[in-house]
């Protein structure tokens, strides 16, 4: 009797292992690391959204040269327009074959703080609040170091170096609206069975020079222009539950971009300023592997309201 019970237990245990093995065989987990070229559709999307967060331009003006001193503190709020991508631009998945849900947020907003350092240097830190807004959760931190190089009564030339670390989380590859369509259909080509939890790392380092000119007849109005070069190193980590697999593909790309901005600052008071910039960066992309490389750059408008505490 004991031998019989032992055999039954062995059979049950073996059956359990076989069943678990079949279940694992039916549902796999794929996690390849891919290195798409800097002009592929996937890389274009990464450098496009990384460029949105560049800590460039929008430098609040100093009312007088002697006011730039160690210990001064300026707080600000930056808001930038995030242009919506066309269906063709959003078709970046699988080397340009699948349209991803990239039009999440219409704006990019972040507070900033500027602290004066010795020898006329200033350090600036900025980052959006880590809150779930528009279906995305940003965890980004940008840091910059800046200094005037040449400053006269009506003319100024300054330098800034900057960088950013962090990521943004959202359902880009398997959005909620895709779940209402059958797997393999046009509305759900990947076969999503739940919302994805994708993470995109938006990392960069860059430097720029900015010129500003105070109008003699309108001293409160200060036009300015800046030009910079940036090194982008970004990763898109897919976390998508599909019908037969869990997709954990990582797409990593890096390369150089150039950017420029121009705008005006207006001194509302001796301590408060309002700045508006038009920003542009050319971004090359080859949407078809055998097609030509074209420029599909980012143009947006950014604004900053700043106040000097002391």
Write structural notes for this entry.
With 310 residues, the chain is mainly β. The protein has a single domain (31-308), classed as Lipocalin, CATH 2.40.128. It has 3 helices and 18 strands. The longest helix is centred in the first third of the chain and has 25 residues, at 2-26. The model is unreliable at 1-25 (pLDDT under 50).
Number of domains: 1
Helical coverage, percent range: 10-25%
Shape: elongated
Strand content: over 45%
Secondary structural class:
mainly beta
Number of DSSP helical runs: 3
* Average pLDDT for all residues: 87
Give Rg in angstroms.
25 Å
Order of helices and strands: HEEHEHEEEEEEEEEEEEEEE
Kindly, what is the distance between the CA atoms of the first and last residues, rounded to a whole number of angstroms?
Answer: 89 Å
Give the second-level CATH assignment, the architecture. Answer: Beta Barrel
- Please describe the biggest sheet, giving its number of strands, its sense, and whether it closes into a barrel: 10 strands, antiparallel, barrel
Q: Give the beta-strand count.
A: 18
- Which stretches are low in confidence, meaning pLDDT under 50 for 5 or more residues running? 1-25
Q: Which CATH class?
A: Mainly Beta
CATH fold field value:
Lipocalin
Taking strands numbered 1, 2, ... along the chain, how are they ordered across the largest sheet?
3-6-7-8-9-10-11-14-15-18
């Amino acid at each position: 009797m004991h031998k019989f019970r032992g055999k039954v237990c062995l059979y049950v245990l073996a059956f359990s292992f076989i069943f678990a093995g079949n279940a694992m065989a039916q549902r796999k987990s794929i996690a390849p690391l891919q290195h798409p070229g800097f002009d592929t559709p996937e890389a274009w999307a990464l450098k496009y959204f990384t460029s949105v967060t560049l800590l460039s331009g929008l430098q609040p003006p100093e009312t007088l040269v002697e006011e730039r001193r160690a210990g001064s503190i300026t707080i600000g709020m930056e808001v930038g327009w995030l242009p919506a991508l066309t269906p063709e631009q959003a078709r970046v998945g699988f080397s340009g074959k699948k349209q991803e849900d990239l039009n999440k947020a219409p704006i990019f907003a972040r507070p900033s703080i500027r602290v004066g350092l010795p020898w006329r240097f200033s350090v600036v830190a900025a980052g959006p609040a880590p809150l779930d807004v528009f279906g995305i959760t940003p965890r980004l931190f940008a840091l910059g170091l800046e200094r005037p190089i040449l400053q006269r009564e009506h003319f100024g030339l300054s330098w800034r170096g900057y960088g950013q670390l962090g990521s943004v989380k959202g359902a880009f590859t398997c959005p909620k609206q895709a779940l209402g369509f059958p797997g393999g259909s046009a509305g759900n080509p990947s076969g999503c069975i739940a919302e994805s939890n994708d993470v995109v790392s938006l990392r960069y380092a860059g430097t720029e020079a900015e010129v500003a000119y105070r109008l003699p007849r309108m001293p409160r109005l200060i036009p300015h222009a800046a030009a910079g070069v940036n090194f982008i190193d970004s990763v898109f980590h897919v976390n998508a539950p599909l019908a037969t697999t869990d997709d954990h593909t990582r797409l990593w790309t890096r390369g150089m971009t150039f950017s420029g901005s121009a705008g005006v600052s207006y001194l509302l008071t001796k301590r408060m300023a309002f700045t508006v910039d038009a920003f542009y960066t050319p971004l090359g992309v080859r949407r078809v592997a055998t097609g030509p490389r074209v420029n599909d750059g980012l143009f947006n408008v950014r604004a900053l309201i700043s106040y000097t505490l002391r």
